[in-house]
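USER: If only I could read backbone structure tokens as easily as an amino acid sequence. It would mean a lot if you studied the pair and described how this chain folds. Here is the record:
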Amino acid sequence: MSRTKLLALAAVPALALGLASPALAVNMTDPNPVASSPVEPIAAGQTKIVVVTCPAGTSALSGGWNVSSATIDVTGNRAMSSTQWQIQFQNESQQPGNVQAFARCAA
């Protein structure tokens, strides 16, 4: 089962992204695009930091995440710079999982 959490500093409309490739995905049709990381593995009992960079000319406003298991916690969620958002994950399980980070960007 997967759960999605989204923490927003401003009202954020629903996210709709198609991730056709493992490269950074950006929905540029939205006036405030959402950038996302590829889906990344996280080993059992491990911590992983994922950084998302907003497109040129935009700033990171907020971040969100998607995890593959309720046993994967978010232990950090913050701006790294005006254009980057960082999410830190902790896998409390004995099983590996997957994580993905998002950044809401604005011009």
Q: What stands out?
A: The longest strand covers residues 97-106. The chain is about 0% helix and 50% strand. Strands lie at 3-7, 25-26, 34-36, 40-42, 47-53, 59-67, 72-79, 84-91, 97-106.
